[in-house]
Design brief:
Elements: H1 3-32, H2 36-45, H3 53-65, H4 69-77, H5 84-96, H6 100-109, H7 115-127, H8 131-140, H9 146-158, H10 162-171, H11 177-189, H12 193-202, H13 208-220, H14 224-232, H15 239-251, H16 255-264, H17 270-282, H18 286-295, H19 301-313, H20 317-329, H21 336-349, H22 352-364, H23 371-383, H24 387-395, H25 402-414, H26 418-430, H27 437-450, H28 453-467, H29 473-485, H30 489-498, H31 505-517, H32 521-534, H33 540-551, H34 555-567, E1 576-581, E2 584-589, H35 599-615, H36 631-639, H37 642-653, E3 660-664, H38 670-683, E4 687-690, E5 695-699, E6 702-703, E7 714-716, H39 720-733, H40 738-741, H41 748-762, E8 788-789, E9 792-795
Parallel strand pairs: 3-4
Antiparallel strand pairs: 1-2, 1-3, 4-5, 5-6, 7-9, 8-9
Helix pairs in contact: 1-2, 1-3, 2-3, 3-4, 3-5, 4-5, 5-6, 5-7, 6-7, 7-8, 7-9, 8-9, 9-10, 9-11, 10-11, 11-12, 11-13, 12-13, 13-14, 13-15, 14-15, 15-16, 15-17, 16-17, 17-18, 17-19, 18-19, 19-20, 19-21, 20-21, 21-22, 21-23, 23-24, 23-25, 24-25, 25-26, 25-27, 26-27, 27-28, 27-29, ...
């Protein structure tokens, strides 16, 4: 062949190689951009003579990258020739798509294996968590290179098998930078910083990953200042280095240094921004967290999850829901952490519509099959007042863990269904599920809310001896509440004195509530002082004690207490209520409806309700507001409690036949409780109110709590309670208004007798709700035992209707 012929052949071969390289690069480029159809078009348009093995391998890899393993295998089977790279590509592709069994079958049938084949399969088993099979395969390898050793080392460290990793590391014939860096990371993970630093100092050559591993190790183990010194002398830094140092500050709560470092970062990565959002959130700087969020040019799923989590943790529930809605508008994929956080927000706000929406998304994502998610869903439905759906979620799982059982026990407890809560508890035990401390908090609370004193005492006594659960402070708080509600205030105090640990604010708060209900003023003074020491900024104990003083006419004590409140800068938490209407949550604050855009019609509805309630015999009970204001101001204050504003709005907006669901941040007062019972009756609506303690289901003039929260011994002190009862008597018995007008000249015994007469009339059912009859003949057998305590008489009675 002449010179011209040889030159032509050489040019032809060069063009063919270039064509093949161009084809392979084009397929790989389309694959990286997710354009699998374009990649296949390039492959198909390549003439067969130029379709070399590299193009086939690239197209098979593209199918695996697009998560189309069947198409990849089909194309592999059509390959005219295959090399070891082709077989290794098939193994790696199956592993990447989670098909380890297929990868093993390819490995077992391939004609020739090299070190890449063995190492790829070892890595696959390690990624799948099967370290035993990975080790077995590793030691069977005929030849190992530094990559093989490093892969196995990384797998052992990932499983926290540091001792085995050390042995393997010492056996390595060659230790490259990657292997040593892995070992440094392993030492740091176990908190062995001295060993890690010794290895770091021995290295003849370090790269940026090695430096970053050491900085990160110090930072994660709380030695942030040492990490910063090492960070400052790094020869070069990358995004990961900066972020590792930043995380050291944020995780230590040192947000000032974190902010300074963040401001000088050359590149603010998404991961770094997410860390700042979380750090600011935990530090309570919610505004700063939101500022970082809004300044980000790019956000990932973790960014949205972090911001929603911050809102959820810090009580910004409405903002969390708003951000969740924005996620959906912007087409951001909803991930698991975001959905769980939003479910918690829905539970906090009793936002049932949003909760159902999140539940539907969890179902579409198949997340709802998880037991943990099921427990969160049950809790959400319970707190939204929908026990039926909570029970449906519970029933879908044949095998339930203790968390799910606890969710149902607690749910029935919060709704005052003590019998149902106890039944779930006994079912749980019959299935062999061991109750834990949370279980007993739920079941003891159920006994407390439903007045099951005997059952509660028996369960409390059996906790340690029968169920091996040591009673904690929460269980003692439940028992104090149980005894206090039942009127056994002295027994409750004795239990507090015998507690093996120091009582906390919850225990003292339960006892103070019992003192208020049963007018134990002397004990209330002691308990209120204990609470003031534990929570000096909490206004609740002061207000309650002030009202008790006022009910006894001890105005000097009231004034002294007010001065003390002012001197201590005590803050009274405002009453707030929420109601969800048409997938939007509306918030109302006690005494103020002006912030709502529909304030005029709300006020009109309140006025209408006031007239209906007066016709039904309602008279505001001024004992539940401050006593140093006149009666007109008391009436106005009671009428504008936040739950009444929310209910008025619900009556306007919630369709007939649908329950009105309201959530309040504080305990509902006795006056509102009485008023809402009548509202439910005169409007014919069902009202579900969740306050700080429990649920109240109001319907036809009744409450599910059977007034257990407010009755027991009825105090006849100088309060509006007796006037309200007299007003009801006037309305129901059509007595002359002169009876009410003569209230100031009646003596205590006459009030007691009159109350017994009224009770005979209204006690048509066991919970004291009116029984309406056309004619009533009452013969009352009364046993009146009166003990005068500073001008207050307690009346115990029995009545019989003939």
């Amino acid at each position: 062949m002449g010179h011209y012929g040889r030159t032509t052949l050489r040019c032809s071969m060069l063009m063919q190689v270039r064509f093949q390289c161009t084809t392979t690069r084009a397929i790989a480029r389309h694959s990286r951009h997710g354009q699998i159809q374009h990649a296949r078009k390039v492959f198909d348009e390549t003439p067969l003579p130029h379709r070399e093995i590299a193009s086939w391998n690239a197209m098979v890899a593209a199918y695996f990258e697009a998560h189309q393993p069947r198409e990849a295998l089909s194309l592999f089977d059509k390959m005219p020739t295959r090399n070891t790279i082709s077989w290794n590509g098939l193994i790696c592709g199956f592993i990447k798509n989670g098909m380890l069994g297929e990868a093993r079958r390819v490995f077992d049938t391939m004609p020739d294996r090299n070190v890449v084949s063995w190492t790829s399969l070892v890595r696959g088993y390690l990624q799948n968590g099967d370290v035993t099979e990975a080790e077995r395969l590793f030691w069977q390898m005929p030849h190992k290179n530094v990559v093989s050793w490093t892969v196995m080392l990384g797998g052992l460290l990932q499983q926290s098998r540091l001792e085995d990793a050390q042995k393997l590391f010492n056996m390595m014939p060659v230790k490259d930078v990657v292997a040593v860096t892995n070992m440094i990371g392993g030492y740091c993970q176990e908190g062995l910083l001295d060993e890690a630093r010794a290895l770091f100092d021995e290295m003849p050559k370090r790269n940026v990953v090695t430096w970053t591993a050491m900085v990160s190790g110090y930072a994660r183990n709380g030695r942030v200042d040492v990490a910063r010194k090492l960070f400052e002398v790094m020869p070069e830094r990358n995004e990961v280095s900066w972020t590792a140092m930043l995380m050291g500050y944020t995780h230590s709560g040192r947000m000032r240094e974190a902010s300074e470092l963040f401001n000088v970062m050359p590149v603010k990565s998404v991961v770094a921004c997410n860390e700042m959002i979380i750090g600011y959130g935990f530090d309570g700087e919610v505004g700063e967290a939101r500022h970082v969020f809004e300044q980000m040019k790019e956000r990932d799923d973790g960014t949205w999850s972090a911001m929603i989590k911050v809102y959820e943790r810090k009580g910004y529930e409405l903002e969390a829901l708003g951000l969740f809605a924005r996620m959906q508008r912007e087409g951001v994929g909803l991930n698991f952490p975001s959905l769980i956080s939003v479910l918690s927000v829905c539970a906090s706000l009793a936002s049932l519509d949003h909760g159902r929406q999140v539940h539907a998304q969890l179902m579409r994502s198949k997340f709802d099959q998880d037991l943990y998610v099921a427990s969160v869903l049950i809790t959400m439905y319970v707190k939204c007042g929908d026990l039926v759906r909570a029970q449906q979620v519970f029933n879908r799982f044949p095998l339930k863990d203790v968390v799910m059982w606890n969710s149902m026990v607690t749910g029935y407890s919060q709704h005052g269904l003590g019998e149902e809560a106890l039944n779930v508890f006994y079912d749980m035990c019959s299935y062999g599920i061991q109750p834990d401390d949370v279980t007993f908090i739920g079941v003891l609370s159920a006994c407390s809310y439903s007045g099951k004193v005997k059952e509660g005492l028996e369960l409390f006594e059996s906790m340690k001896c029968k169920y091996q659960v040591e009673p904690g402070i929460e269980h003692y708080a439940c028992m104090v509440d149980l005894l206090g509600r039942a009127g056994q205030v002295n027994d409750a105090m004795k239990l507090v004195e015998k507690m093996p640990m120091e009582p906390d604010a919850i225990v003292w708060g339960a006892l103070l509530g019992a003192c208020r209900t049963h007018m134990k003023l002397d004990l209330a003074e002691i308990v209120a002082e204990k609470l003031a020491q534990l929570e000096p900024k909490n206004a609740g104990p002061y207000v309650l004690l002030s009202n008790m003083y006022a009910s006894r006419g001890r105005w000097r004590d009231v004034e002294d207490l007010r001065k003390k409140i002012k001197a201590r800068s005590v803050i009274k938490l405002p009453g707030c209520s929420w109601i969800e209407v048409e997938k939007k949550v509306h918030m109302f604050t006690g005494g103020d409806s002006k912030g709502h855009p529909e304030q005029p019609i709300i006020m009109k509805m309140l006025g209408k309700l006031g007239g209906l309630l007066r016709e039904a015999g309602y008279c505001p009970d001024g004992s539940f507001v401050l006593h140093d204001v006149d009666e007109e101001e008391k009436t106005h204050s009671l009428g504008y409690h936040s739950e009444k504003l929310a209910i008025a709005y619900g009556l306007l907006k919630v369709p007939d036949g649908m329950p009105i669901r309201v959530m309040k941040n504080l305990r509902v007062c006795g006056d509102c409780h009485s008023a809402i019972k009548l509202i439910a009756k005169v409007t014919g609506r069902e009202i579900i109110l969740r306050d700080a303690n429990r649920f109240h289901h109001f319907k036809d003039g009744y409450c599910s709590c059977k007034d257990y929260c407010w009755n027991g011994k009825i105090p006849f002190g100088r309060s509006g309670t007796r006037y309200q009862l007299l007003a009801i008597a006037v309305a129901q018995l059509k007595l002359s208004k002169k009876v009410v007008e003569t209230r100031k000249v009646l003596n205590w015994y006459q009030y007691a007798v009159l109350f017994c007469c009224i009770w005979s009339f209204v006690s048509g059912t066991s919970d004291g709700n009116p029984a309406y009859v056309t004619q009533l003949r009452v013969k009352t057998l009364m046993q009146v035992s009166a003990s005068v305590e500073s001008g207050s008489v307690f009346c115990q009675f029995s009545s019989e209707k003939v």
